[in-house]
Design goal:
There is one protein chain. A hairpin with a 5-residue loop joins strand 2 and strand 3. The protein has 2 helices and 6 strands. By secondary structure, the protein is of the alpha+beta class. The C terminus is likely disordered. The protein has one domain.
């Protein structure tokens, strides 16, 4: 799903577990994709996202096949997409 939130535009969404996920279709913009995920978790506040410490969140990045909508190992000839899941730890992810 394409997300337009404040000044952000990316492909991703929110999981029932309160994690966000962001897709990197090229597999080469992981830094930007990671910051998009943290900024989205911070409700669009880039300064807050930049100041999060590694104890404040947990992340997982996986290979993603955009055509079959599956995660896992890349097969020969497939595009190398990545997907990042990020979730705040502790009480910050509860509302």
């Amino acid at each position: 799903m394409d997300i337009n939130f404040k000044d952000m535009e990316f492909t991703g969404g929110i999981c029932p577990c309160r994690a966000v996920y962001v897709l990197d279709r090229s597999g080469r913009n992981m830094g930007e994709t990671f910051m998009d995920a943290l900024t989205f978790l911070s409700r669009g506040d880039y300064d807050k996202a930049v100041n999060l410490g590694t104890d404040d969140y947990e992340t997982v990045d996986l290979d993603y096949n955009y055509q079959s909508n599956t995660i896992g190992s890349k097969k020969v000839g497939e595009k190398n997409c990545k997907i990042i899941f990020a979730r705040l730890k502790g009480n910050e992810n509860k509302e």
